[in-house]
């Protein structure tokens, strides 16, 4: 790999996610949207983002957002170990995967990049724990039992924290954020793909501001 900026340690990343509370999950098709999107995020003080690698523009968008010093930018929808390398080279400060693929997790550990693999069952949570991971992504959260399932995982396996994503929006995010095991919630409701494609920046700014207000009302809900 080419040289890349030093990576923050996992504890620092998790603390910043907890402080942010709400993590926009971005699916961006056009790299030209990166600059106005970054402005909308900065304006609303949403400082932690997950840029998914679902589109051809994903890595370039990640690089543009990672260059913004006020943003903690991570890579999402990481499916292959080579994508871990690409994401880190593009400036990702953390990696998120929809499932727990041991090869992806192992590559993240080799590179020293914090990783939040997706988990939806107790067995997967235990596998994440076996890797020594302090946190995982609960995905798809709503379809996998929502807050009651999350509460059951946390009761049985208390040394893992979660970032729920999937089916979460402005109306139900607070219920997750009230759970002590939750670092923060991920969602795309503040900058959905269709609004990004239409360049609906006024609407995106409004949604980002609402998400930031939600984050502010839940700030300090629990100690790190």
Task: Return the string of H and E elements.
Answer: HEHEHEHEHEHEHEHEHH
Overall average residue pLDDT? 95
Q: How many helices?
A: 10
Poorly predicted runs are none
Strand-residue fraction?
15-25%
Oligomer class:
single chain
What does the radius of gyration come to?
Answer: 16 Å
Structural class: alpha/beta
Number of domains: 1
| Main sheet properties | 4 strands, parallel
Provide the CATH superfamily. Aldolase class I
Q: What is the helical fraction, as a range of percent?
A: 40-55%
Q: Tell me the CATH architecture.
A: Alpha-Beta Barrel
Write structural notes for this entry.
With 224 residues, the protein is α/β, with parallel strands linked by helices. The protein has a single domain, classed as TIM Barrel. 44% of the residues lie in helices and 15% in strands. The protein is built from ten helices and eight strands. It has helices at 10-20, 34-44, 58-66, 81-89, 102-111, 122-130, 146-156, 173-177, 193-197, 201-218, and strands at 22-26, 48-52, 72-76, 95-97, 115-119, 135-138, 161-164, 185-187. A four-stranded parallel beta sheet has the order 3-2-1-8, sandwiched between helices. The protein has a four-stranded parallel beta sheet with strand order 4-5-6-7. Helix 2 runs parallel beside helix 10.
């Amino acid at each position: 790999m080419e040289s890349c900026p030093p990576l923050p340690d996992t504890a620092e990343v998790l603390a910043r996610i907890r402080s942010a509370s709400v993590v926009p999950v971005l699916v961006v098709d056009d790299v030209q949207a990166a600059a106005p999107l970054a402005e909308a995020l900065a304006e609303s003080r949403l400082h932690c983002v997950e840029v998914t690698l679902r589109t051809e523009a994903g890595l370039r968008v990640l690089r543009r957002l990672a260059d913004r010093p006020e943003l903690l930018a991570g890579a999402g929808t990481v499916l292959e170990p080579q994508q871990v390398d690409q994401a880190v080279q593009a400036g990702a400060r953390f990696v998120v995967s929809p499932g727990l693929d041991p090869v992806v997790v192992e590559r993240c550990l080799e590179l020293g990049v914090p990783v939040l693999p997706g988990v939806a069952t107790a067995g997967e949570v235990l596998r994440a724990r076996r890797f020594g991971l302090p946190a995982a992504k609960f995905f798809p959260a709503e379809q996998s039992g929502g807050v009651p399932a999350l509460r059951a995982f946390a009761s049985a396996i208390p040394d893992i924290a979660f970032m729920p994503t999937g089916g979460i929006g402005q109306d139900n995010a607070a219920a997750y954020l009230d759970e002590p095991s939750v670092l923060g919630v991920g969602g795309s409701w503040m900058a959905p793909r269709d609004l990004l494609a239409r360049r609906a920046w006024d609407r995106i700014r409004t949604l980002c501001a609402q998400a930031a207000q939600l984050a502010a009302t839940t700030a300090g809900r629990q100690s790190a």
